[in-house]
Structure formats: structure tokens, C-alpha cells
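Exam prep: given the inputs below (a chain plus 6-O-phosphoryl inosine monophosphate), describe the expected output before reading on.
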Amino acid sequence: MATVAVVGTQWGDEGKGKITDLLASRADIIVRYQGGNNAGHTVKIGDELFKLHLIPSGIFYSGKLSVIGNGVVVDPGVLIQEMEALASKGVDLSGLRVSDRAHVIMPYHVLLDKLEEEARGTKRIGTVAKGIGPAYTDKIARRGIRIADLVDEEAFRERLDAVLPHKNKEIERLYGGTPFSKADIVEEYLGYGRRIKPYVVDCSSLLNDAIDRGKHILFEGAQGTLLDVDHGTYPYVTSSWPTAGGAAAGTGVGPTRIGRVVGVAKAYTTRVGQGPFPTEIDGPLQDELREKGMEYGTTSGRARRCGWFDAVGVRYAARVNGLWGLAVMHLDTLSGFPTVRICTGYKLGDKVLTSPPSTIKALEACVPVYEELEGWPEGTCKVERYEDLPGAARRYLARISELIGVPIAIVSVGRERSETIVIKEPFEGSPS
Ligand code: IMO
Ligand code: MG
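Solution:
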């Protein structure tokens, strides 16, 4: 038995999809533990490019279970659309499972996401407007509706009676929006409930029983450490816990049963949405990096902000997640830059910080301290062994590892599934 969690170490979009897809081949069960359809994973299989928002990337392997954990917020309409899109391309959905305790994104959550953003004006977060924040707000406020309610007509009507008047008041009185009719929601959502019911399980029982039977479990995080509601650049964060601790709460598996944590980092940094970004590049070099890395959002299509590798941020991620190893993605994108930079500290006034400060004001005032390293002109896509990477690329990776204090376990050297060098196998000899 072995269990591995994959977490983002930056602001999301690190390439977690490729790593979970790779590690899914070694696992029996793949489980998403937080977030919702704000996530976007692109998985390339042969010539087909698949864009997943909600369903774990394990779905491409038959004979494995792909579980949506209790910590995820599920937009049932989106889930069904995604199921249909996969099915139409011949992907087998019989391994899909959805936790009975996952919360449901309701239509008023999607509307409130937009209304709240508008109300924030210049202080907007730049959410993906899918209702994620408002759904988690209701979960914590104990006004949520769960999958178990959605698939039980009586429970669903009862919950809606209890919460809809409040939500409608919020929409009308705070934002001047149009209230929702109970009848419309009931009709639409009970239909969704019937479609989803065959896949509903008690996630915690399923996973713990599997662990008892020696199965391998992969915990799939969405977003990244710097978007974590506790550990990220608050308030410019998402409303869930992408960090490794979220894997326990979001699935009902105790932290002692999560063996290893693999952090995923791009060889540089990107961010979508608003908020501080110390190593963001000024000028045309940013555009060059964006074009080479095809840095446009999977979910929103928005151009990603691009910058140099931030060792302060990733070292912090190593700490809050207890990383066992690092997967460095998009190394190929950096080929051809004469020099590459790594941020080793944040200069704030006359001090150099080695860990991010807790306020946005301080973070915005931080000036990155850079180390400049020699670049490598060679492409890396065809390289199969770490030793065969260009010397300058190896020195870059070694320096990152040294600064983070975590060994490099995996390097992605190209877009293809096969263009990946595994140095340390996360599932091999995993302690739990
Ligand atoms: P994956 O899983 C990158 C960002 C949004 C916004 C903030 C809050 O692909 O790495 P939300 O809609 O979650 O309330 O928005 O978080 N964000 C992401 N950025 N990748 C993601 O997911 C993201 N999910 C949310 O842009 O700044
Ligand atoms: Mg994304």
C-alpha cells in the first residue's frame, strides 16, 4: 500500500494534470480533494487534448477509480457535461465516484460570484466566476446543499426551503439582482441528481477500505499553495485548501495515512487573476515566455502573467506541505533564453526576507533578489535521462533543489506524456 499527494506549489497551473496523469498509472484510486471547476487540467493522450475541470485525470485509465472527494465543490451541470464529453470520445466512466458529502454549486453561487466581484471594483480577485467562493462560503456558514441531498428529492426540497430565501435576500437586497425560483432550481437539479446518483459513494469509507487492502491512492490537488485560503496571498486566493493538509480533510483519510507529498512547480512562475506577484517580468520578455509556454488559462482562456522562478515561494510551499519531492515542469519552455533567473529573497526596506510576508501591502513592496544563471540553447524534449540534460539546465535544477531543500523527483522536458524524466518514483517504498 502506498499513498501520494500531488500539490501545486505556486499559483496553480503548474502542470499538476500531467503529473497526476503520470502517477495515476501507478495508482488504483485517484481522488480530487478540493476546489471545483475553477481547476483546469490539460492532458494530452496521443493526438487528443483533453481539458478536465472536475473529473480526476485518472479517468483515462480503465480499471481504476476516479473519485471526487468531499472537499470538492461540485457543479452538477458541469460534471454531467464533462462526463458526456469524455463518453463521446470513448472514455469509460464506470470508475467515476462522487462523495456524498461534497457540496453542490448552486445557480445562485455562480451569480453571487459575479455580483461579489463587481462589488469589489478595483479590489476584485479575478475569480473564474464559477461560484466556487460562494459555495464554500455557504458550506462554512452551514447553509450548503450536499450531493447526498441532491440525490434525495425530499432532502433536496427541504434544504432548498431552508436556504433559498436567505440567498434570494442576499441577491436582491445587497446587490439588486434577480432572485431564483425554487421550482426552476428543483426541476433542473433533481434531473442532475438522478444522473449522478449511480456514482455516489461514502468517500472516506471507500478510500480507507482500499488502503486497508493494500491499494495505492493518489490524492490530486487543484490550484496551488499560494492560492490556499490559509497559506496563500490572502485575500487574493481561492476559497479552499490546495495544500497537503486539505487532502486529509477533503477525503476523510487521516494525515498519518498520506505517505508522500509531491510538489509541482513550473520552471518559472505564472499567475492568473489579481494579486501580488513579486517575480512578474516587466516588458517583452514576459510575452516571449507566455507564447513559448502557451500560458493561457484552461478554464478562462485568460493570458497568464509570467515571471521568473520564485524560490522564496516554493521553499515556503515545501514547508507548509511537507514536500517529499519536487516535480519541475515546462523545463523545455526555458530553452533558448541566454540567461535565467531565480529569486532567492525578497528585499523589503533594508531587510531580505526568505519567507513571504503575511500582508498584501508588504508583499507588494517586496523587491525580488535574483541570482542569474547561464541558459541553455538546446531543446530538451527528446532527452530521456537526467544526466543527458544540458549542463546549464542541470545546474539550474540543482540550484532550485538546493534553495528549496527538496530533491527533484520528476522533470517535464516536453509537452508529451512520454517527455518526462522520473528521477525518484513517489510510489516506490512510500512509508504508509
Ligand atoms: P488549476 O487547478 C490558476 C485563481 C483565480 C483567482 C483566484 C480565485 O488549473 O491550477 P476562484 O474562482 O477560485 O474563487 O478564484 O484563484 N484560480 C486559479 N489560478 N489555476 C487554477 O486552477 C485556479 N483556480 C483558481 O484566477 O485569481
Ligand atoms: Mg488552471
